[in-house]
Amino acid sequence: MSRDARWKTLLELLVERGRLDVEEAAAELEVSAATIRRDFDQLAEQQMLVRTRGGAVVHGVSYELPLRYKTARHVSEKQRVAKAVADLIAPGEAVGLTGGTTTTEVARALAVRSDLASGTPALTVVTNALNIANELAVRPQFKIVVTGGVARPQSYELIGPLADGVLAQITIDVAVLGVVAFDLTHGAAAHDEAEAAINRLLCERAERVIVAADSSKLGQRAFARICAADAVDTLVTDTAADPETVRRFEEAGLRVVTV
Q1: Of 72, 115, 141, 159, which residue is most buried, by most CB within 10 angstroms?
Q2: Smallest Cα–Cα separation from 180: which of 63, 43, 11, 48?
Q3: ∠ CA(149), CA(153), CA(159), 5° rounding?
Q4: What is the pTM (predicted TM-score) of this model?
Q5: pLDDT for 134-156, tens place per residue?
C-alpha cells in the first residue's frame, strides 16, 4: 500500500471512529507500528489529526475529511449510484452538479455516455465544484458553467456571494446533490453552512432535484441543512439501504431508485 493510500485510509478510519491506536491501525493496514507512528506524526504536522499517547484523535469536535483525502470507501456503491443518476439525465438538459465524491462520479458517468458524445452542446453542466469543471471542460460536447466564488479547500466547491450572483440568473432542468446526510425529518445536509447555501440555491433554480447518496448517508444528520426532503424528487442509493428507510421516503412522495 502506498503512503497516500495509507494516509487516506487512516484519515477515513479516524473520521469514522474518532480515535485510533497505533497497534490497532497497524493491524488493520497490515504494516508496522513504526510506519503508523510516522504517518500519524506527519499527518499531525499538517493539522489533519491530533497525536495522543499511543495513537491519534480527530481534529476538533466536528470534522470533515477534505475531498483529496477521501478514500475509495463505498466506491462500487457510489459508481453504481452515479451511473443510475447519469441515466436519468436527458441529452440537451441543463444539469447542476454540487461538489462531492458521488457527484464527481456522476460527472464521469456522464462523460462516457455514448449518446452524449456529440451535440451542440449535448449537455449544459452548471457546477460550483472546481474538480468537476476541470474534468468536464476538456470535453467539447459539454457546455460548462462555473458559478464563481471563493474556493473551499475541503470540497473544491466555490461559495459566497459571487456564486449566489451567477445562480440567481439561470434556471436548470435538474440539480444533482451530493450530501453528507439525508433524513426524512431533517432533509439533505452538508457539513458547511456556506456550501449548503449554494447547494440550496442550485435546488431552487432546478425543475427537479436528485439526491445521489450511498446508503451510509441515509437516516443521518449533519450540521447545515440544504433542503427539506419534500424538495427532492428522486433519491438514488444502493441496495444496502435499509428497506424501512426506503419505504418511508417513498411514502413521503419521493421516487427511490436502488442499484
Answers
A1: 159
A2: 63
A3: 25
A4: 0.79
A5: 999 999 999 999 999 999 987 89
